[in-house]
Amino acid sequence: MRVSTVWFLIFVLFTFPVLSSSHWWFMSQVYALGAKIMCNNIAGLVTYQRQLCRENPDVMVSIGKGAKLGVEECQQQFKDQRWNCSTVARDVSVFGKVMRKASRESAFVYAISSAGVVHEVTKACSRGELIGCTCDTKRKGRSHKGFEWGGCSDNIGYGLRFAKLFVDSREQERDARAKMNLHNNFVGRRAVKKHTELDCKCHGVSGSCQVKTCWKVMSQFGVVGAFLRERYHSGVQVTVDQSGNELVKIMADGSPAHPPRDNLVFLEESPDYCVPNTNTGSLGTTGRVCNKSTPGHGSCGILCCGRGFDTIQVEEVYKCSCKFNWCCYVKCHTCRRTVDKHVCKSPDDNVYNGNGPHLTASVANAQSNSQNRPAKKLLGDKRNKRRKERKNRKRGASSLSTNSLSRGDRENKKL
Ligand SMILES: *[C@@H]1O[C@H](CO)[C@@H](O)[C@H](O)[C@H]1NC(C)=O
Ligand SMILES: *[C@@H]1O[C@H](CO)[C@@H](O)[C@H](O)[C@H]1NC(C)=O
């Protein structure tokens, strides 16, 4: 893993201020000089984190990887949602202002990041990469289910403890937001603990499984991600009680109650993610690819917030006519096909004002799908386009990947 990547990820986790590029260079030099200097020079660590860093420099890499795992899983889980777990690219803090708001989304980000740290630290431990931790060998002998405990069970206890020490020590205040973060960190850690399974191996004559040895492993991180996403949906809005010491959920009759331990909690309503808003960090959904044939998540109706969508054609490269060669490899050809993509319109205009010149060019040609566009204009567009197309064909300069046809044109071609 590249040094700069590690530091980037640590910064990502804690929304540090943007560093200048010379500072980046400086940081990677510092890394080479040893843990003490290194830990003293990571911007934004709190004192206790610096101490943990000096005492356990080997674990720091896993913390960085854990933060990255959390971010990637978050983007995977929310890829078809209005909020897709990303803000302006190259912003050092990936989540930017979303994290500053005490919203449901921030709650998820804290939970999945802390789960990611548990997961990666535990994995590093099982691989024997950490000085202070070994496999969990507490389980020995025969289990009541008839198999032998063996091998190396994931030592989740160590991962849980370290993640709690390191991640939770960020929260130095005692205010409502700190309590919210701590609660969600806890939910994230517990989600990893909840999702462990048995991995087994059979021994005996030709795999007869006369003897079975098993050990505990964590589930794939995607399982944890899916679980936490459910928790996100069932998240509970809370407030602090009158003493200011505890988060409480206000019941329908106005009485306070403890929020459920395994639910994510948040203090503020989410902003509107349909439109860009620099104050809340919402990017809006203009230009997002949506699914026309589903009524559920990622549907054009929901994702485009009722603004309608444009249909563009893009060329896709994929593997085809694969053949198995004796022995033992598979050889494939590369094929191309043209697929329809639907992208959300901008709120301002019927014409998409994309950010890349390439996308803009292709979408400008695309057929509009909003109902309120005058039919006459569409016809005019088509005629113009056909003329243009003929020109292009003559020039022989038509490349599918950059040239997008409206549905109308394609249908004409079929005829
Ligand atoms: C998330 O949405 C933004 C804004 O619409 C977009 O620019 C970005 O590519 C999306 N990210 C992912 C991972 O889909
Ligand atoms: C769109 O949704 C349908 C139905 O859920 C699904 O079968 C299809 O694979 C989705 N298409 C894309 C491009 O994701």
TrEMBL record:
Pfam families: wnt
Keywords: Developmental protein, Disulfide bond, Extracellular matrix, Glycoprotein, Lipoprotein, Secreted, Signal, Wnt signaling pathway
Lipoprotein as UniProt keyword: yes
Composition-biased stretches (Basic residues): 383-396
Function: Ligand for members of the frizzled family of seven transmembrane receptors.
Predominant subcellular localization, coarse grouping: secreted
Record-linked SMART domains: WNT1
Subcellular localization, as worded in the UniProt entry: Secreted, Extracellular space, Extracellular matrix
Biased composition (Polar residues): 362-373
Signal peptide (from-to): 1-20
Top-level taxon of origin: Eukaryota
Name of this protein: Protein Wnt
PANTHER family, sorted: PROTEIN WNT, WNT RELATED
Chain intervals for the UniProt region annotation (Disordered): 355-415
CDD domains to which the protein is assigned, alphabetical: Wnt_Wnt2_like (cd19334)
Family recorded in the similarity comment: Belongs to the Wnt family.
